[in-house]
Amino acid sequence: MIHSTAAEMATKLAAGEISSVELTQQHLDRISVVDGQVHAFLYVDTEGALSQAAAVDAKRVAGEKLSPLAGVPLALKDVLTQKGIPTTCGSKILEGWRPPYDSTIVSKLKSAGIVILGKTNMDEFAMGSSTENSAYGPSHNPWDLTRIPGGSGGGSAASLAAFEAPLAMGTDTGGSIRQPAAVTGTVGVKPTYGGVSRYGLVAFSSSLDQAGPCARTVLDAALLHEAIAGYDPRDSTSINAPVPAVVAAAKKLDVKGMKIGIVKELSGDGYQAGVRSRFDEAIEELVNAGAEIVEVSCPNFEYALAAYYLIAPSEASSNLARFDSMRYGIRVGDDGVRGAEEVMKMTREVGFGKEVKRRIILGTYALSSGYYDAYYGSAQKVRTLITQDFAAAFSKADVLVSPTCPTTAFKIGEKSDDPLAMYLNDIATIPVNMAGIGGMSLPVGLAPEDGLPVGFQIMSPAMKDDLMYQVGGTLEAALLRKWGSPILSNAPALGAN
Given 19, 20, 67, 77, which residue is catalytic? Predict the structure, then answer.
């Protein structure tokens, strides 16, 4: 049953063909068999998951009306708080912390009867593109265990590709849902900023962070999207508007008459040949399905990466100041003699990893007196120009598309000593976060030169997330007809068995 889609699992649960306890146990068993190799999870809540599953089963037997995904298991990125469950954000500085409250997303998951299996590995405080920055060691890509599963949410994506969970939660600040989805052959969605509550999401960059669904199919992602989305008064950036009808859109399978814009600046030089060829083939499928293809230019996208690496570290330097050893997390050097400032300094030296320190220093410098306008202020002006580029492009096209990543998954350790090379992995995903619009990555085949998954990115206007699901669902169905089986069925033994 673990190889079924979440929608198929939900159907069998509703029909009484399998219980949630049985389904949850199957996934826990799978985790125990393969996670020693994959390292997708930082914490597995065996007792809690089975208890949640039993509660769903009891409600079903009692005839209670349940949500569409009730009883289906899920893996939770370790940046979202869950009451009483360790939440580390992939950092030593939060080792052993058990939050006293649930994030809004976790509250919604529990209300929907979705069973939380445990917390997944991630780059420390979501800063990275490979999960190599986790204080607890890297996750591994089930397609090739020597390769990265993306980042920062590599654990969530790897859990899906290894069939350890049918659904997962991720967060996306500059591509941390979409890039892992691309390199693991899964589906990842960054909803419109404000479309899903950030309450209880441990902040990296507050104006960019957005939680979203991770799954193995577009429909599964849509079902999870509807379960977690909606207005939350506890989040000041939450949008008080109806949730787009993403499930209906994912089922529509029709793009006749839609205009799909290829972003000139995100589809030129610098892309692996196999990525480019699979992207072009996907475009052909959309044309065959009745879509009209247009080219659009977004000239300010070339500045997005530089602007992002001023805005995000600046906000991080402010957000991470709260980890001071005084209120929660580890404390180093508190011998009763040292002062609070020295204890704080020693704790942060031990508790934060190299990449987090790098970004704190970058952000503090950019916000410092005499440099604020030149760096942070200028980056925000670029952000406005990027938003205007999107607006102009959406006046010509219903959605925009590009490859999700320039390359397929690279080897673990290959770019860990070259921060700039690592940052370039997010060159196609960052503009979406800068403008606060919706973005999706779905698999469109394997690169011929290495046999690894290629991701296709779809971008939709703010609060029109249904459009990317409509295009994504149509493209997925066309490719399924072409291949005759889902992309993950072609994965190596670890992923397929």
Answer: 77
156's torsion region: left (phi>0), alpha (psi -120 to 50) or beta? alpha
Report the distance separating Cα 473 and Cα 467, nearest Å. 10
Query: Could you report the per-residue pLDDT of 296-319, keeping only the tens digit for each?
Result: 999 999 999 999 999 999 999 999
Please say if 152 is a catalytic residue: yes
CATH topology of domain 6-301+383-496: Amidase signature (AS) enzymes (3.90.1300)
Selected catalytic residue, list 20, 134, 176, 416: 176
**Angle made by CA atoms 447, 451, 455, in degrees to the nearest 5:** 45
With 90 as the cut, is the pLDDT of residue 420 above it?
no
Of the candidates 5, 160, 10, 179, the one whose C-alpha atom is nearest the C-alpha of residue 75 is 160
Give the whole-angstrom CA distance, residue 314 versus residue 368: 10
Q: Which of 152, 267, 416, 460 is catalytic?
A: 152
E strands, 174-263, in order: 187-190, 210-215, 259-263
Separation CA 403–CA 278 (nearest Å): 9
